[in-house]
Amino acid sequence: MVGVDQVLEKLATVVDPDLKKDIVSMGMIKDLELNSGDLKFTLELTTPACPFNDEIEADVRKAIDDIDGIENFDMKVTAKVMEGRSLDDDTLATVKNVIGVASGKGGVGKSTVSLNLALALSQTGAKVGLLDADIYGPSIPLMLGMKDGAMEVEDNKLQPATFNDLKVVSFGFFAEQEHQAAIYRGPIISGILKQFLVDTNWTNLDYLIVDLPPGTGDIPLTLAQTIPITGILVVTTPQDVASNVAVKAIGMFDKLNVPILGVVENMSYFACPDCSNKHYIFGNGGAKKISEKHEIPFLGEIPLNSGIMEGSDLGKPVMMTNAESPSAEAFRIAAKNVAAQCSIVAAKLQEEMQAEATTN
Questions:
Q1: With contact defined as beta carbons under 8 Å apart, do 326 and 349 qualify?
Q2: Residue 86: left (phi > 0), alpha (psi -120 to 50), or beta?
Q3: If pLDDT is split at 50, 70 and 90, which confidence band does 177 have?
Q4: How far apart are CA 149 and CA 174, in angstroms?
Q5: Cβ(26)–Cβ(58) under 8 Å?
């Protein structure tokens, strides 16, 4: 008669492609019950946005099918996002992963990428927040079609605005006039960001996406020095000028010992609607060159599409208005790859903590 040990031994042959570990040692098999050939358990994946979720589930079913003596099999599939941050204090203790989205220069569509990645992650079932950290030029409220005054203060805590389950904070919500300029020195800007981070009711988030202003100034530095960050996502475009400046952002966060999750290439190509060919208008392979040279993951390429830009200007992001489009699919792929990199960082952190506990 088949036993629990035999089942676990077979399940241990299933390896998570990203984490390079078997699902049993990772604790992904929960509540296993085996009674007279009736097998039941829960497969708890590391994130609902993992690009290999379907593959892992299929491998588990095949592993069980290979066991003689299993008459009935009931598997429940859930997901619990891993914590990718080392918390020395209670700062943002309810946020599992903080992802900074950076670029070396403006004009690469970083805010558009940040917003649509956040929406793509949210649509998988993850709990997601979006912090517009560009105090001088906040654009997220416009991209969401949300007006100032969308945020409130309760019990001395900022309450994020909500857009389709996405929690949003932006300095743009506080502007007295739509085109009012924020004229502040660096220390004041840093103070505003700190308040948005620690004095906001970010409740039980799996991912907090922080849309950083371009460059390597006060805001990125404040983020890195204020809270533990899971990692940085770098956005660039194919041109050499954009790629060369993006490298400076990578260098900055390397010096600050902040992990680089990878690079996304925006405006990568134009997909011809008539011939279905990809036309690389701004050149080809800029982000991939960065990926190879700096040994960081290449997480996706977003096509050049007037619908993306028009949607951003009209407060109608493509992930909401045209979810079946190639552009939306490109954002979904990139979001899954970002989530996978967060899980990899979390797994390494878990290993380090276990090793430290063993040593002590």
A1: no
A2: beta
A3: very low
A4: 6
A5: no
Burial of 309 (0-12, 13-18, 19+ CB in 10 A): middle
For residues 83-91, give the mean pLDDT. 77
Q: Which of 151-160, 179-188, 198-207, 302-311 has the lowest mean pLDDT?
A: 179-188
Cα 38 from Cα 67, distance rounded (Å): 12
DSSP annotation of 95: B
- Select the more confidently predicted residue: 215 or 17: 17
Query: How confident is the model at residue 287, as a pLDDT?
Result: 84
Domains of the chain: 4-79 (3.30.300.130), 98-355 (3.40.50.300)
**Position of tokens 């505003």?**
192
- Looking at beta carbons, which pairs linking 151-160 to residues 24 or more positions away fall under 8 Å? 154/201, 156/199, 157/199, 157/200, 157/201, 158/195, 158/196, 158/199, 158/200, 158/201, 159/200, 159/201, 160/129, 160/200, 160/201, 160/202
Nearest to 85 by CA among 235, 263, 224, 255: 224
Q: Residue 265 in 3-state DSSP?
A: strand
